[in-house]
Amino acid sequence: MVPSPEQQLFTLMWMVGAGVGVGFIFDLYRIARGLMQPRWLLTALGDLFFWLLVIGFTYGILLQVNFGEVRSFIFLGIIFGLFLYYRLLSALVIRLALFIIAGVSRGAVFLARLFDTVFLKPGYHLICILVSPLRRLGNWLQRIVGKGRYHALGAAGHLGQGLRRRMRLIYRLLKHKLLFLLGKK
Question: Which of 31, 33, 74, 174 is least surrounded by CB atoms within 10 angstroms?
Answer without folding.
Answer: 174
